[in-house]
Structures are given as structure tokens and as C-alpha cells.
Amino acid sequence: MSGHNKWSGIKHRKGAQDAKRANAFTKISRLISLSAKEGGGNSESNMKLKFAVEQARRVNMPKDNIERAIKKGTGELKDGAEIEEIIYEAFGPGGVAMLIKTATDNKNRTLGEIKNIITKSGGKMASAGGVMHSFRLVGNINISANSENLDEMEMKAIEAGAEDTIYWDNVLTIYTKAVELKAVKENLEKVGISVENAELVYDALQKVELDENTKLDYEKLFEQLDENDDVQEIYDNIT
Known about the structure:
Layout: H1 6-39, H2 47-58, H3 63-74, E1 84-91, E2 97-104, H4 107-120, E3 124-125, E4 135-144, H5 150-160, E5 164-168, E6 171-177, H6 181-190, E7 195-204, H7 212-226, E8 231-236
Antiparallel strand pairs: 1-2, 1-3, 2-8, 4-6, 4-7, 5-6
Helix pairs in contact: 1-2, 1-3
């Protein structure tokens, strides 16, 4: 007779959910601290901090946690090592170019963990600049849209200064020049469009297509990196 029962299954799922929740809290706390460190602790004047705080609220992060993360970023709270942003460059399965953005309080630990994950996947770390030159920094804005108002939303996005748009799963993603992100966001809000998030992202200059087996290998690598508390964003050049 199997040793598994309904309760053990529930506990296992709950444990996985709790782990994901804790992982999300850790990632967002570090994002908040970094945002406050870069632009100050006022979310009204610091757009990056404002969206980080909104992201925290969406996952029901306690208010005390949010305030503690802000104070840690501004230096008001001396709580452990300082958080810093480091972008690692790597090549994954099939030679996929990768930029792995991290927020860490121990760069030696983070480098060791990421290098281990990449190497075990059959990939390799790249030297500084070895991958970065294949990407450009652009503005990225997400707004809600559906098939009924898509044309109208795309027109308003173009009028607001968008360079390009992509629609997927009821979300219209708007790309802008990096220096125009704030202006385009404000233009959208002036015409009554609610912005879900706005940030700078790395976009690959040239895309590659993977075969199914290599794509599965890359997805496993992506998941392992994403589960790491220090990893904030992963950019690649896959179509």
C-alpha cells in the first residue's frame, strides 16, 4: 500500500506554494531596496520604487516588510549587507545569449550559485561584454487590452511615443527608447490609460530559434535560475 495520502499531497503543495511566496517576497524586497537606493524612498517621485511597491502589494507583502525594504535601501536601516545589482552574462543550451540580472547581498555566493546552474545545464559563463553587446536597453510598458479595444490602445500608444507594440494574453506591451520611458508613460496616463508596470529591459538585437529538445533544456535552466532568490530578471535572444 502506498505511503502517500491526501494530506501528504496537500502538505506538499502547500509547502511548494509557501516556498514560492517566500521566494517572491525576497525578490521583491531586494527590488524595493535597490529602487530606493537608486532614486530615494519617495515612491511618488521614484517611478521604479512606485512599481516595485505596487508589485509587492499584488502578492500581499505586509506593509512592514515594504517599509523595512525601503529603509534598507535608503540607508536608514542597517540590516545586514548592502544590496547591489549585478548582471551576469552567459550562454545557455544551443548557445542562447543570456543576461541574468541579480540583486544580492553576497556577490561571491551569487556568482557561485549561478555558475553552478549554468554549467550543469551545459552552458557557460561569458566574460564581461561578451553577451551585453547583443542587447539594447529599451523602455517596456504593459497595459491591459482586449480584442475589442486593441486598435484604439495601439493608436494611443503610438501617439504617446511608442516605438513598437506586442499584444499577448490581454496585455499590450509597449516598447520605447530608454530615455523616453517616463515621458511615454506620462503621456498614456494623461489620456486615461492605466499603466500596469513600466521598466527598462534588455532586448536582443537578433533572435535565434531553438529546436524542441534544446528549448526544453533551456526552459529547465530558466526555471532553476528563476527559483534562485538573488535572480531578478532573465533576458535572452530566443524568438
